[in-house]
Amino acid sequence: MPTSPTREPLNKHVGIPEVQPGQSLEPRRERSLYEILVEGGTVVDGTGSPGRPLDVAIDGAKIARLCKRSEAKGAIRLDATGQIVCPGFIDIHSHSEFHLLANPFAESKIRQGVTTELVGNCGSSPAPAIGVARKSLEGYAELAEVKLDWVTMDEYLLRLSNLKTSVNVATLVGASTIRQCVIGNSDTKAGEDELARMNRLLADSMLQGGIGLSSGLIYAPGCYASTEELVSLASTSASLGGFYASHIRGEGRTLVKAVEEAIRIGREAHSRVEISHHKAAGRPSWGAVDQTIAMIEKAREQGVDVSFDVYPYTASCTALDTLLQPWAREGSDEEVIERIKDPQTRKRIIHEFVTPTESMEDIVPDTGWENINVVGLSSNVYKKFDNKTIAEIAEAMGKDPAETTLDILVEENLRAFAIFHEMAEDDVVKVIRHPLAAIGSDGEAEAPYGPSGKHATHPRAYGTFPRALRRYAIDKKLVPMEELIRRMTSWPAQRIGLQDRGALASGMAADIVVFDPEKIRDLATFENSHRYAEGIVYVIVNGAVTIDHGEHTKERAGQVLRHRPGIA
Ligand SMILES: [Zn+2]
Fold first, then answer.
1. Positive or negative: CA dihedral 355, 264, 309, 93
2. How remote is the CA of residue 332 from the centroid of ligand 1, in Å?
């Protein structure tokens, strides 16, 4: 299924799809009646080509043909007059692996027009769930109110396909997860045997359907992996046709070094590389994306197939404990909490919070307590402060912000998240305008009801795709709409290796979005995050109308997209 780096010309727009194995070479007999006809709209086919006045005929789960007006009829007719008809959006950077099990309707994503999610990003995948990894995954499962009742990748994917979700799902295999399976959470170098076992687990998980490798190098235990370890794993993934997606080792003062490392891994492992949510975080680093984009372009000229994705917001969101330096996060949750409680180590942690190290992320000095909102709070003490800044919580508690942060971590058992308002809009624009940028939410499939609706969240979970279209294509006209749609559809499909999705053409999967270019917009904000986007009229997933006039039909026609090594 995936294309190898050598076969894929650099920065090539996807053209008419190749003939797939098993697909007939006979000329198609064209009929006039189809199951569904999306008629009257402007077809933007996902390749970057200009929009055309065409109807889209669908039979079963596939697009039968694109046809001129009145050429075909549909048993079901969807009126797309005045609207854009394009491929379903592919969210190349999602974290819905547990959320989809809690709520298979994928509400916040499907209502943005997302029809496929790639989960298992940032080094953490739902499987394999053994050893210390199992304990850590149980924690995530508990947060989503899901029971972790699988061990292998095959079992996880079966669980998803038996449940049936409203979107298609593919997953990466997390480098942190497999490190936890073999080594646990300790800051030790992988020995030869351990590395061999990690590679075996990765290969097994990919043979069972995992689509590639992800890493999260700011998180424990991902941050304990050496470049050599990652080259070894990325080589295994690439040999099976997979790609390597990385939350790189630093996005602030160490951004340039971290991009260098990602490129080196791609070069030495002969792997496609996706730099996840590319950004420059923290005021001293603003503007650094000029340099990193130039580095990426140069690497591509030298034959390293590296690209990136981005979400259209100036704030990030991740676990609050990423504020701790790697030494403080080593070991089990209990050990980390003991370290925070111990007066001596607590002093050292606090000192490192506020003193730039130039070696790791300097989030606090570069961002400021007043720009860090804490979310996901559920303890009796802190629940009422959900979505407040650390500066505000500290003031209300009459405490120092650093002390407050550590108290929150202890009280919440380390399970708190933070929204960091740390980026410059200029940088976001530079990244979004670049032809290599795919759009990826970095968010989960959420809903205002049920477990995910209990806490504030980053609005990207609800707004990423409509916001990018509204803000950067329609209002500011910084990227042509056809081009931005390409970067939400055929480009991520090509990166992931999905050959039958991401473009509107005969024989492709019938994953389609119909949106109103006048009305499309995001409504979710940092203050009020659980709000669905507007202007998405129809969403079709594998031929099933899942959003009809903006409402969820409760269809669950999504497929689990398993990697097929050997067809690379
Ligand atoms: Zn990440």
1. negative
2. 21
Q: Ligand 1 centre and the CA of 443: distance in Å?
A: 10
pTM listed for this prediction: 0.93
| CA 137 / ligand 1 centre spacing (Å) | 16
Ion ligand 1 residue ranges (Cβ < 5 Å): 122, 247
Centroid of ligand 1 to alpha carbon of 362 (angstroms): 16
User: What is the Cα 148 distance to its own chain's centre?
Assistant: 21
Task: Give the rounded distance of the alpha carbon of 57 from its chain centre.
Answer: 30
Q: What is the DSSP string of 27-67?
A: PPPP-SEEEEEEESSEE--SSSPPPEE-EEEEETTEEEEEE
Closest listed residue to residue 154, CA positions, set 134, 135, 174, 126: 126
237 in Cβ contact with 244 (< 8 Å): yes
DSSP-assigned states of every residue in 434-447: STTEEE--------
Cα of 32 vs centre of ligand 1, distance in Å, is 47
482 touches 43 (CB < 8 A)? no
Q: Work out whether the CA dihedral 204, 445, 281, 278 comes out positive or negative.
A: positive
- Centroid of ligand 1 to alpha carbon of 122 (angstroms): 5
Compute the distance from residue 18 Cα to the ligand 1 centre, in Å. 33
Q: Quote the CA–CA distance of 124 and 121 in Å, as a whole number.
A: 6
Q: Which residues contact 34 (CB under 8 A, 6 or more apart)?
A: 57, 58, 59, 64, 72, 73, 74, 75
Quick one: tokens of 214? 């992800």
Identify which of 389, 398, 412 has the alpha carbon closest to the alpha carbon of residue 340: 412
How far apart are the C-alpha atoms of 190 and 315, rounded to whole Å? 34
pLDDT tens for each residue of the chain, 568 residues long: 333 333 333 333 334 444 454 454 444 556 789 999 999 999 999 999 999 999 999 999 999 999 999 899 999 999 999 999 999 999 999 999 999 999 999 999 999 999 999 999 999 999 999 999 999 999 999 989 999 999 999 999 999 999 999 999 999 999 999 999 999 999 999 999 999 999 999 999 999 999 999 999 999 999 999 999 999 999 999 999 999 999 999 999 999 999 999 999 999 999 999 999 999 999 999 999 999 999 999 999 999 999 999 999 999 999 999 888 889 999 999 999 999 999 999 999 998 887 766 555 678 888 899 999 999 999 999 999 999 999 999 999 999 999 999 999 999 999 999 999 999 999 999 999 999 999 999 999 999 999 999 899 999 999 999 999 999 999 999 999 999 999 999 999 999 999 999 999 999 999 999 999 999 999 999 999 999 999 999 999 999 999 999 999 999 999 999 998 754 4
Alpha carbon dihedral 420, 424, 425, 429, in 10-degree steps, equals -110
Rounded Cα–Cα distance for residues 312 and 362 (Å):
23
Q: At 168, is the secondary structure helix, strand, or coil? A: strand
How many beta carbons lie within 10 A of that of residue 137, not counting itself?
Answer: 25
